[in-house]
Amino acid sequence: MxxxxxxxxxxxxxxxxxxxxxxxxKSYYKNRQLKAExxxxxxxxxxxxxxxxxxxxxxxxxxxxxxxxxxxxxxxxANSIKEKEGQQNNWWLFYDQAGNVHHKxxxxxxxxxxxxxxxxxxxxxxxxxxxxGRKIKEWTNFLSFKSENSLNDLK
Length: 155
Prior knowledge:
The chain is an alpha+beta fold. 16% of the residues lie in helices and 55% in strands.
């Protein structure tokens, strides 16, 4: 009887070990171009993932934890120009076609929540404050913006 119990626990332990291991997976478009690659653990996305357009250029890349986007993510156009980058519920940077930061915003649950800063030729030209996607204040003068806000909020 003791042997059967030990055998049962040994089989359970082996199954748990096998199914909880990370494995690297790839998926492909019908044209055989790589569509996505990354790590799975227990059937869920984890660690670093990279997605591709049909033409083979990188579309987006970033990290997952427990099948949810985590940490920093980068997004690119089909012609490999960085469009945006950021971290869930934190600052996001948005780029123009020349690769310069056009604006950056604090996002929470995929909507503006906090500050958005608009740049032109690498110079701050406008700042806005949002709450749950609604604009509540706007500044076009950096001195008034600075006097009304704690710059620590911009970290």
